[in-house]
Amino acid sequence: MARLADYFVVVGYDLDKRGGSEGQGHILQRFPEKDWEDNPFPQGIELFCQPNGWQLVPERERPSFFVSVLTDINSERHYCACFTFWEGLDNPQLPKAEASEVDEDEVPGLVQPAQVFAPKSLVLVSRLDHTEVFRNCLGLIYAVHVDSLSVPLETVIGNLLTCIIPVAGGSQINESPVCSLNLSVPQALACDWLLGCFQDQPCQEEREESLRTITLGAGDRQVIQTPINDSLPVSGSSVAHLFRQLGIVNVLYLFCAALTEHKILFLSSSYQRLTDACRALLAIMFPLKYSFTYVPILPGKLLEVLSTPTPFIIGVNSFFRSETQELLDVIIADLDGGTVTIPECVHISLLPDPLLQQTQTALSMVLDPELEMADHAFPPSSTQPSTLKIQDKEIRAVFLWLFGQLFHGYRWCLHIIRIHPEPVIRFHKAAFLGQRALTEDDFLMKVLDGMAFAGFISERGPPYRPTDLFDDLIANQVERIRQEECSPHKVMNHIKELAEQLFKNENPYPAVAMHKVQRPAESPGHNDPKNLAMFPLLDDVTVQLFIDHAAAKLQTAPPVVKAELKGMVPSGPPLGDIVDRHGHVLANSARRLEVVRNCITYIFDNKMLEAKKLMPAVLRALKGRAARVCLTQELNQHVLQNRAVLDDQQFDYIVRMMNCTLQDCSHMDEHGIAAILLPLVTAFCRKLGAGITQFAYSCVQEHMVWTNMQFWEAMFYSDVQNHIRALYLEADGGEQSIAECGPAAGGQELLGALELASEQSRLWPTLSKEQQSERVQKEESTVFSQAIHYANRMSYLLLPLDTSKNRLLNRSGIGDVESVSNSYVTNSIAGSMAESYDTESGFEDAESSDVANSVVRFINRFVDKVCNESGVTNEHLKALHTMIPDIVQMHIETLDAVHRESKRLPPIQKPKLLRPILLAGEELVMDGMRVHLISDGREEATGALGGPALLPAEGAIFLTTYRLIFKGTPNDPLVGEQVVTRSFPIASLTKEKRISVSLSMDQFIQEGLQLRSCTFQLLKIAFDEEVASDLAEVFRKHMHKLRYPQHVQGTFAFTVGQSGKTLVEHKTKDKNQSIKTLSKNLVKSAKRTIGRQYVTRKKYSPPTWENRSSLQSELDEDELSVSEELDQGSLTLSSTIRSSDRQTMSNVVERACCRDYQRLGLGTLSNSLTRSKNEPFRISTVNRMYTVCRSYPGLLIVPQSIPDSTIQRISRCYRQNRFPVVCWRNSRTKAVLLRSAGLHAKGVVGFFKSPNATSAGPSQADSTSLEQEKYMQAIISSMPSYCEPSGRNTLGGFTSTHMSTSDSSDKLRQPKIGALMKQVMGGKEDVPGTFSRGALGQRARVISLSQPRVSGKARNPPGGKWGSIRGSGRLSAYNPEVGNRLSSKESPQPNGGPSEALFLRQQRAYLYIIGDKTQLKGGKQDSFQQWEVVPIEVCDVRQVKNSFKKLIKACVPSSATSEPSMTFHRCLEESEWMCLLHRVLQVSVLVVELLDTGSSVMVSLEDGWDVTTQVVSLVQLLSDPYYRTFDGFRLLVEKEWLSFGHRFSHRGAQTLASQSSGFTPVFLQFLDCVHQIHLQFPMEFEFSQYYLKFLAYHYVSNRFRTFLLDSDYERIELGVLYEEKGERKNPQVCKSVWDYIDRLNKKTPIFFNYMFSPEDEEVLRPYSFISNLKVWDFYTEETLSEGPSYDWELVQRGRQERLAEEVPDKPDTTTPKSQRRIVWPCYDSRSRVVPDAITKLLQDLQSLEAELGMPPEKWKDTWDKIKANQRAEAKLENRPSFNSSLLMSSNLSHQRRSQGVYLPESGVGSSINLAMDRETSTTSTPVAGRPSTSTLYSQFQSTESENRSFEGILFKKGALLKPWKPRWFVLDKTKHQLRYYETRQDKECKGVIELAEVESVIPGTPTMGAPKNIEEKAFFDLKTTKRVYNFCAQDSPNAQLWMDSIQSCLSDA
Question: What is the spatial distance between Cα 1079 and Cα 1106, in angstroms, rounded to a whole number?
Fold first, then answer.
């Protein structure tokens, strides 16, 4: 029973305290004045009466009523019913306003009304929510006051406050009524009330009813219906209203948001609606109760509550809408507008999918039943939705049904851990989610973690309590819900039944509705004077009398005991079956389970081989849950008395399976697998030796689940439950013992525990005190003993076997106090535990004590939590805390012994380590360490593309002085006998990174390394657990030492074959010392002499030069020029050249450069020394001491007329002193190619200033610039085209037609070079690029041109004037035919000519300078513009470096990825490697063109040793066939790359000093360009693609000395340069890569290109567009069977060994031997297994010679013989097309020839177009014996041009409904075809019309969709036997031409 109302309060407007704009309310009276003991008076009521603030109003408003809800500190809700009416009073503001108008905020002139109205509220405070009753009662009081009824108000209020009603269900016993009558009340007034109180109760129903009938003594009477069961919420019709206001989807959003603890704010202008909406939201959440802030009506003064961080449900009047706008994380529901606004940052998890759909369907059937019938042809007459009250219950029934689906089976996941004195119950969330297969579901996870669910468990968990509708639903109707969930109509029936129950609960007696309540008379006029009576002050004594009287009566009445109907709560059907029907679990077929069972049987029967075969299948099967459960069940059967002793191999297999099982479990362990394994890991063990046993737990610790606190808690509770159950089963004398079965703590056993608990709770009150305390004690000690047990278990699984390793703790987290995360503490946290328990036990080792401390802390946290929850006494808890450190300590000590012993175990049949084959002189630095090679992002080896998985493989990694080698066997037993090898030279290591790897097979997460090499190899290795971590560290240190030696002499090329390496290092150190000091002094003195301005030039040499520890030092700087004052002849640096000058010179003459200069006719040494004048060039020895330029060779080609002294001065203008020198001359045009570095970027004037005053010669600015000009002039003069017969270069000579020597083809090429220039120079802008002349250093001006005489193809200059290049900002267009004269205003012309004159020239410059766009500062311009600067953009070294990094990552990704943005081609494109190749090739082709047309070119880019070298070498390779032979290419590389000082050591980061600069593959880029050219011209190269790959590999491998050091100077310093001749101490060790190639080439044709058939003087012009470039297979290919094939002797020896192994296996020769061989990509070397035809024939020949015992002939001799014979035959047959090549398919030859022309610029049909149409066969090894059609035709066709009789564009009509499309058609008489292509450039034919099938060609008519604006006669049709083709030409003559051509073809045939 409860009071209907606790307090009655009158609140009025406070006239005294009104300040400013806002008034205040205050309590005028309250009854009773003293607080009830059980219910104190709530504070702040006056705020809630007027939530918008207390204000006076000018007109009387109608009375209002609403209910606010206040929540007190004990989270009890108080319902405050506020009835507000307005009373008139004189305006208090009038006098004040007159006094001080200024102070007020009002607008002056506003008329103030004389009378205003103040609000007054009557408030009832109650703990019951009976809105309508409160409305009636307060309305009655108001009516009594207004209508001045004769009943005293005190009586009415007294009766109201003493009214007592049942809370729920009515009382079951006969009792006298309590609403007794106070005698002071006049009899007449109370008669109605007396009727209610004193009537005899004839029957039970009436008695209940009478108890719910109240009257307040004013002639009124009302019936209060209390709900039957008060645990169900009462909603009236509020839920239905909420859905009407917001709609289904919006309410579902709010529902999910409330359950997942978001903030929800309702807005409405009606207070009552706010309360109703909040009440409705709470009602649909049933059975969960909302436990956060709940304020249905929030007063405006308290709006800051909205910024609270906790979740809430709050209602606010729309008046305050603007203040809610800035709330960022609040979901706002506007009830009036029907919208729900969810902020961007809020993510609401919605119901899991099928449920959401079903709920929405059910709701729409309730709210809108017509929707279903809307489309019916005969809709039923009426399908009105139910009345609001019923609809309300139906909606609630839907949500009840939804919760039934969500929570069914929850009781099977309850753990009961204490029964007495109070039941303690925990919910096993992981098991619930696991069995429902909803672990991934975000919504359910959040709900289960929420506060509401925690309340739900504590309220509904106890097994013995009253039950309600929800319990019944969960227990008895789950089956029904599940069967009906797919049929909405059955669902609706169920929902209607539930709704009926809900309705009945709220309205138990719907028939009884007696309401007799006085309402006030029709509201009188507003200003009616009789209305002005104020609400009177009530007599508190009278009211108090009523209250006391009633209280006294209550005390005398017998106590009301309503017997609660407690009972056992049924659990419903268990979860397991349900999930199985859904089919989520049965993913594992029975076959898989069979495999698991068999494997375990084999293991225990010791059939290890069988087990090994099944193992991979088992490990795969264990990914499924059923197989894991099966494994645990099987293992359980092999445990006897908690122990199972295994031998080593059995132990290993069992541990492996356990690890695999645990690895696929999540850290939550939702299927309870880890829980079942927990007892097993402490049962399986093996004996290690004297009394030492190793248990399985020491090998399965590496799993997240063991570090998850929630897992341990769930485990603990489940065990405690079992023990307590056992305790009571024994106590009851072994009452039917229920068999424990089923996987987790599930099955009938759980049922038993809850049933037992229920029974015990029922008996509890009947027990005596002693029995009770005994039971409590027993339970408590059970929990305590379990806690000790778990402390042990946890120490088993948390302490690593090797406690020094601290492996687990590295994962941060054991130490986080909150950590529900599954992780471990870091060492620092562990170390911060100051108090160490270990001092007593004599346990010193600091690091392991860290482990101990963190484990102790983790266990302490666990123990604290579970013991507090399960009520363990404090004494016991303290005892536990002292025990835990000892437990951990003891365990550490036993582990140490186990660890020691386990180290001694022989490793379990791991594959034996295979030894790698080493080179002569290669030594092992570290012997093999067992590792696993893990697959990276390349898919081939992992079996991803089909085929067996070769990786991961197990083997060993070896570190030698030269390589890093992995050799091992694949883990996959299907290919277990193959050998996998991966290796790369240690010098090519570019990146090393530590990784941690988890192998599916193995126990641990291992430490590993990822090693990347610039030979496009990646080794991802994980160290085996037998490798100690310190050993791995030693390995890394050695690797670094070898990768970056102190000095280049530490590299393999130098140390090979020497054992005493220390000696060398010692020597170099001393030498370094002396040079360092020398250089320091030199630099100091130089700086003193030179002064500041000169020193600034230092920035041009790379900083790493200075800090190299090699012999290179600061000497490299320009400061060296200080020594110029000395006599040149006397200068010899003793430290530089060891032998005498003469010997050096003779050596130099032998060098490559010299041989080449003589070949090119650029002079011989003797000739240059005697200075014969008739040669234009001479060999200068000015640099023989490397004093002018350290990085140049000793001998240089310079113009004859330039003396050495000039050279020294000129060199200073160029970076690194690399002045222009000649490196090649075109034998036909005599144009020369020069190379130099870029000019110093000081501005033109700056660098002409002489660096020091003492230098020889005048130090005026112009002297050096004149000398530089003279130098240029000398080069130009050397060209035959320049030296006119007149002897002087006059103007006339200039304008004469250019170059009589050039052939007529140049006319054709003129415009083409222009186009080339355009491409090369066009930067980011789309202007055609620039071509400027002269020095732009001074202010440049462009002089207007007269209209030039140009061929029609050249572009006209825009207008007459060209704007200044500087001024316009955009560079002017280049006209190839016209020289733009740029001259300076400031200085007059040197030859005195007029400065503004027009110089018009119809020819090209004699010298082009290819310069960097960023430094457009060419040399000083001569007056007659004989040279031009071509500014281009070059890629700098940084770009190359970054591009290469990305290229490596694209070709050798470290891990597989499925992201579309990370595909191979996307990464390749992002690396921009192809763009860089394109740029280099483009510039090279331009230079080739210029040289070929007779202009000289000077390449002057960056420091002259990177891009310059690439361009210059490529130009020579393209222009001169000699460089495409073996000798020539070697010479080219020696001359341009080695002698001219490309910094191989620096760019390759070969030593410690250059480590920071990183690896920059400039030379590799050059080789890639050569490879691209090779692909396009396969017949022009004597060497094969393999030769290029070989160089690419060995230029970084450091196996040879060829590519070490940065210049000839350094090589002489070390004495490396000339040792290659003669001294061969160790014939095995080749010091030069060239010697090695020569030797190898004699033995095998591997480097030879069989297709080599050069044309004389052929200049190659490759396509350089990116679409023409191919990815070099050097980057992507790999042979796992033998490793890289570039160390030839290793591969050969490996193959011999393999053959030797294979031979004895086949003694039986009688059986037919299969010729089939399986070739795996990426494993076998395809070129070896399937060689090309010629190689195969040569091999067969060799083996035949061997069999016949003949001396083997060299392959080259054989080849030359065959070639000679073939040529002779060809001559006899007089077939010219064969004389060039051995190959019968000369289509390859003309395919190459056709590319002669680079850019077609002429009309249709000319032969130039053929350049684009080349064949696509670019393989270097054609397969002989497969004649194609093109081969047949090629016998009488020497070029392709005749194959195209007629060609052009035609529109062709497509198939039906397809548009007309323009296509490029080719009529081919020879092949008798009409072919068509997409475009003119297209190489792939899109279709062929065989002319043999053509019947007729006739004029056609336009059809639908034909091209517009074309005359009708342009259409013609081609009729074949199969179909008619419709064509359309551009115009009628063209069409006629086509028809005639086709006709003539037909008639010819």
Answer: 10
With CA atoms as reference, report the closest residue to 964 among 998, 1006, 1013.
Answer: 1013
How many whole angstroms separate alpha carbon 1036 and alpha carbon 1022? 13
d(CA 870, CA 423): 9
Distance of CA 1191 to the CA centre of its chain: 45
Confidence of residue 1130 (pLDDT cuts 50, 70, 90): very low
Interatomic CA distance for residues 768 and 1101, integer angstroms: 100
What pLDDT, on the 0 to 100 scale, is given for residue 1619?
59
Q: What does the DSSP 8-state code read for residue 928?
A: E
Give how far Cα 217 sits from Cα of 2, 225, 513, 516, 1329, Å: 20, 20, 19, 12, 106
Amino acid at 105: D
Give the three-class secondary structure for 395: helix
Q: Contact, 669 vs 711, CB < 8 A?
A: yes
Longest dimension (CA), the chain: 154
Average pLDDT (1274-1293) is 57
Distance between CA atoms of 732 and 1128, rounded to whole angstroms? 117
Cα separation, 1336 vs 1415, in Å, equals 10
List beta partners, residue 1897: 1918
pLDDT of 1773-1806, one tens digit each? 765 444 444 444 334 444 444 344 333 333 333 3
pLDDT grade for 1626, boundaries at 50, 70 and 90: low
The pLDDT tens digits of the residues spanning 1057-1067 come to 765 443 333 33
User: Are the C-beta atoms of residues 70 and 298 closer than 8 Å to each other?
Assistant: no
pLDDT of amino acid 87? 87
Task: Give the CA radius of gyration of the chain.
Answer: 50
In this structure, what are the phi and psi dihedrals at residue 1438, rounded to the nearest 5 degrees?
A: -60, -40
Q: Give the Cβ contact number of residue 26 at 10 Å.
A: 13
**Is cis: bond before 152, omega within 30 of 0?**
no
Tokens (6 digits) for 589: 């077929």
Is residue 1122 within 8 Å of 1255, Cβ to Cβ? Answer: no
The whole-model pTM stands at 0.53
Return d(Cα 1705, Cα 1691) in angstroms, integer: 22
Q: What angle do CA 591, 592, 597 make, to 5 degrees?
A: 95
pLDDT for the residue 1148: 55
Task: State how far the Cα of 552 lies from the Cα of 1170, in Å rounded to an integer.
Answer: 144
Per the structure block, which two tokens stand in for 1677? 């290919």
> Can you give the length of the chain in residues?
1949
The CA-based angle 481-487-493, given to 5 degrees, is 65
2 CB neighbour count, 10 Å cutoff: 15
| Rounded Cα distance, 172 and 1932, in Å | 111
Residue 64, beta-bridge partner list: 84
List Cβ neighbours of 760 (8 Å cut-off, separation of 6 or more): 419, 420, 728, 775
* Calpha distance 547→303 (Å, rounded): 38
The whole-angstrom separation of Cα 1865 and Cα 1867 is: 7
Say whether 86 sits in a helix, a strand or coil: strand
